[in-house]
């Protein structure tokens, strides 16, 4: 992370990281942010980061929890806002346009995360038909087949229609694999189990 980006992030979250108390030498917001970013970027243990910053392990634990919460509270409405009805409709149009997969709201992969279905998600007709289907997410073979979660057909001995479906679903699903690949390359904490 460049110094300019670090400073911009510090300006956003720094006010939430100021501690007033009885500590003789309070840990500055910039050091708190640096500790948290080091944990996220390297995936190192809290003990390793504590040694490199000359802090106690329990201090690093509390710094990480407080700073991660401060980052979330400061930025979630900007970087990870919950989609509106119009956003869901745009996403479904883009999946159809880019990947030829209709009525799809997203792709999931890698980390198994519980995702609630969007409120008031209206079923739609498949393009060019009168067949009404609920909006879906697409995933790989590791996910269960559900009314709102589609996965490829198993096996390799598929008829033509099933092969086309599996090919289109796999194309649409790859964006999640690519996103997680980029995410884990940048933030190595995603390469190991997260407690």
From TrEMBL:
One of its GO terms (cellular component) is nucleus. Keywords: Hydrolase, Metal-binding, Nuclease, Nucleus. It comes from the Eukaryota. Its cofactor is a divalent metal cation. GO terms for molecular function: hydrolase activity; metal ion binding; nuclease activity. Belongs to the HARBI1 family. Signal peptide: none annotated. It is found in: Nucleus. This is DDE Tnp4 domain-containing protein. It comes from Stichopus japonicus (Sea cucumber). Residues 106-194 form the DDE Tnp4 domain. The keyword Chaperone does not apply. The keyword Hydrolase applies.
């Amino acid at each position: 992370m460049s110094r300019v980006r670090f400073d911009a992030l510090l300006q956003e979250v720094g006010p939430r990281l100021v501690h007033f108390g009885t500590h003789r030498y309070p840990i500055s917001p910039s050091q708190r942010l640096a500790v948290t970013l080091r944990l996220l970027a390297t995936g190192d243990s809290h003990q390793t980061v504590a040694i490199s910053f000359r802090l106690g392990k329990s201090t690093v634990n509390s710094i990480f929890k407080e700073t991660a919460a401060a980052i979330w509270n400061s930025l979630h409405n900007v970087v990870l806002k919950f989609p509106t009805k119009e956003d869901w409709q745009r996403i479904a149009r883009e999946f159809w346009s880019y990947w030829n997969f209709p009525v799809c709201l997203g792709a999931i992969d890698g980390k198994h995360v519980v995702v609630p279905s969007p409120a008031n998600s209206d079923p739609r007709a498949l393009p060019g038909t009168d067949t009404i289907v609920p909006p879906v997410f697409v995933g790989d073979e590791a996910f269960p087949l559900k009314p709102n979660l589609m996965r490829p057909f198993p096996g390799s001995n598929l008829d033509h229609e099933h092969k086309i479906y599996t090919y289109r679903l796999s194309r649409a699903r790859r964006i999640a694999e690519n996103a997680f690949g980029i995410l884990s390359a940048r933030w190595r904490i995603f390469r190991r189990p997260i407690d």
